[in-house]
Amino acid sequence: MKFGVCYYPEHWPEERWPLDAKLMREAGINIVRIGEFAWSKLERRPGEYTFEWLDRSLSILASEGIRVVLGTPTATPPKWLMDRHPDLYMRDNKGIARGFGHRRHYCYNHPDYPVYIQSIVTQLATRYGACDNVAAWQIDNEFGCTDTTRCYCDNCRTAFQQWLEAKYGNIDNLNEQWGTVFWSQIYNAFSEIELPAYTVFPLHNPGMELDFRRFSSDSAVRFQQLQLGIIRSLAPHQPITHNMMGMFNEINDFDLSKELDFASLDNYPNLMFADKPDPRSSALALDATRGFKQANFWMMEHQSGPPGGNMLFPTPKPGELRKWTYQSVAHGADAILYFRWRTCLFGAEQFWHGLLPHDGIPGRRYEEAARTGEELQRLLPLMEGIGSGAEVAMIRSYENEWAMEIQPQTYEHRYDRHFQSYYGYFYDSRIPVDVISDDRPFDSYKLVVLPHYMMAKPGVAERLERYAAAGGTVVLDIRAGTKLWNNRMDDATLPGTFRELLGIRITDYGTLRKGETRRIAEADGEVIGQGTVWYDVIDCEKAEPIAWYAEDYMAGTPAATRNAVGEGEAYYFGIGADPACMRSLMNRVCESADVHPITQVSGPEEVELARRADRSRSFIFAINHAGEERSLQLAGPMRELISDRVMEGAAVIPAYGAYVFAGA
After folding, report:
1. 374 an active-site residue?
2. Same domain assignment for residues 451 and 469
């Protein structure tokens, strides 16, 4: 099992390095990530490489049995490089350069930057490609974090024009696909096309806006591919990863992950959800990362203390570091690296705390990590590589999320929140979920849910029809089939390409403003919850209603439907459902689809239940997110693996505690 930290030896005197390595080894740490921001230390001046300090650091770590993930430092091009190429700075949609002093300030599409990347990465891979102490490589750092993907510089304008020409072939095809006849936007050449930058009235052609997001994501993937090619040629036996950001959406991480050996995640619950950390959101980010390659992943940066740049976020209470670690493992993390080893004394992250405080003296966070590491060294070998055993797949579509960002259509409504409303149902119901792309096969799942699948990727409707006919269950909802894949409206009667699958016709629709709802009822008139955000007026052609509007002009008409399709079925929800309505509708769907929750263990809502399972083994995690102990109920005698004891009946789980049970 890989258990470690992110380490920056360049921040500390060399005489401290042996003590750091010794303390790491005593805490059970066997791997560190190193070097991803060290370019100016490795190449102080153009072509003057100084690797000796890194050699010494790796040697000291190796003497304590610690291996490294070596980062390429391309997230932080040094000042001398930026001064040589001032047009390398990324520019925002108002044309303002990001400037020097942060990180990821470069443009992916600058024509000269690859020359410098080729040089530094080749030097690193040549020197360390055969080094036994290098366990893996990390490319750059956190693509798509904090608006660092979409650049509006002249280099990107040229690259975007070339990307469009390669996609559309001729300008008339682009004009047709985008509908540029609107507002007199017809182009005569690709060279005329501008970037969708800031305008007084910020509403660009939706086809252009979507293609620009696609292009920007592809630019990051291509940028990564350059480094992958260098490392694979010089270090063919060393795996390569990148640390992604879970539910961040600037880059299509399904595409970014394809050529990686494994995916990695950076996870900071107290930063991402500072007001009130939500374990559902953390769990979704973890499941999303497992879905990038439909395989387990590494936690490359795991919160270990209070994060902070110019201000501090909440300090993890005793036990929370361990609790979050077990949540990560429960959802597929096969390696844990905490960020960071020691809290830095200078720079922009002086308040971003690590396992050790500023004085470098081990305290409670170090001790908690050491305890957690000792437990995981015993547990993870039993379950390494084992996934969730999920019967449910949720389809995450970056391109539909981008389209919803471009044209939200409803007030204060977002794709990610809508997606989370379904995920929250499964989390609360203790039903494991895989989060996958629409390119993946559906056949291994009993239920496939496609939230806000507005633009239908070509071929997906036919695949869903075959899947349902063979016995699968499909759920689609508001706006499904509204648009074509180029982000223009479909002129087919709604729900467009899904009309045959769903067996319905939508005759009218409308938005609900913030705070507006419509009562939703069952056949007997009993209200099951509220519809929010949107309403569709539905005519059942072949489908049967399963819920009805109980007010407004559509009262008595279907709000949700079910259509029999061969051996399976397809559901449509014509509303945004509040939690009560979602629970009622999805309970019916899951019961009909024969989807099973975790039943061997039960407990209150503050206790998360998750599972890693394959055909022969099952491991059930109970994680108490409350600051007080809670009671569990076990369906039968079960071995709890952390304490190595058999428990049965009622069991108490401590505040921020975690149990791991060997399931049937």
Report:
1. no
2. yes
- Which residue is catalytic, options 43, 250, 301, 368? 301
Nearest Cα to Cα of residue 127 among 196, 72, 51: 51
Q: Which of 611, 655, 612, 610 lies closest to 631 in space, CA to CA?
A: 655
Q: Are 541 and 507 in a shared domain?
A: yes
Pick the last residue of a domain from 571, 593, 615.
593
Pairing of strands 67-71, 31-34: parallel
Residue 616 CA, chain-centre distance (Å), reads 29
Mode of pairing for the β-strands spanning 134-138 and 240-241: parallel
Number of H helices, E strands in the chain: 18, 30
In a domain, 447, yes or no: yes
Q: Answer positive or negative: Cα dihedral of 641, 642, 645, 651.
A: negative
> What is the predicted pLDDT for the residue at 271?
73
DSSP result, 452-467: T--B--TTHHHHHHHH
The answer to whether the beta carbons of residues 640 and 656 sit under 8 Å apart is: no
Residues recorded for the chain: 664
First to last CA, the chain: 24
Same domain, 453 and 573: yes
Our answer to whether residue 142 is catalytic in this structure is yes
In sequence order, the 6+-apart residues with CB closer than 8 A to the CB of 212 are 150, 160, 195, 196
Same domain? For 620 and 500 the reply is no
Domain boundary among 577, 593, 609: 593
The residue type at 454: M
Query: Quick one: 556 and 620 in the same domain?
Result: no
In the numeric block, the tokens 């075959």 are attached to 466
CATH number for the domain that contains residue 545: 3.40.50.880
Choose among 335, 329, 446: nearest CA to 5. 335
Distance in angstroms (rounded) separating the CA atoms of residues 609 and 606: 10
pTM value?
Answer: 0.97
Catalytic hit among 36, 43, 142, 465: 142
Q: Which pLDDT score is estimated for 597?
A: 97
Residue 615 lies in a domain: yes
Same domain, 422 and 546: yes
Residues contacting residue 299 through CB under 8 Å, at least 6 positions apart: 264, 265, 266, 267, 328, 333, 335, 336, 337
- Rounded-to-10 torsion of CA 192, 198, 203, 208: 40
Pick from 264, 320, 319, 330: nearest CA to 297? 264
Please, are residues 597 and 427 in contact by the beta-carbon 8 Å criterion?
no
Residue 345 counted as domain residue: no
Look up residue 36 and give its amino acid. E
CA gap 375, 383 in Å, rounded: 13
Q: What does DSSP assign to residue 346?
A: S
Are residues 553 and 606 both part of a single domain? no
Structural domains in the chain (count): 2
Buried b / exposed e over 141-178, threshold 16 CB at 10 Å, is bbbbbeebbbbbbebbbebbbebbbeebeebeebbebb
Are 503 and 447 spatial neighbours (Cβ–Cβ below 8 Å)? Answer: no
Mark the ranges of the chain whose per-residue pLDDT is less than 50: 274
CATH of the domain at 636: 2.60.40.1180
Alpha-carbon span 192 to 182, nearest angstrom: 16
Q: Answer yes or no: is 332 within a domain.
A: no
* Orientation angle between helical segments 17-26 and 52-63, nearest 10 degrees: 30
Q: How is residue 663 written in tokens?
A: 């399931």
Domain that holds residue 552: 392-593
Gap between the Cα atoms of 664 and 646, Å rounded: 13
pLDDT of residue 273: 52
What is the predicted pLDDT for the residue at 532? 96
Same domain, 530 and 424: yes
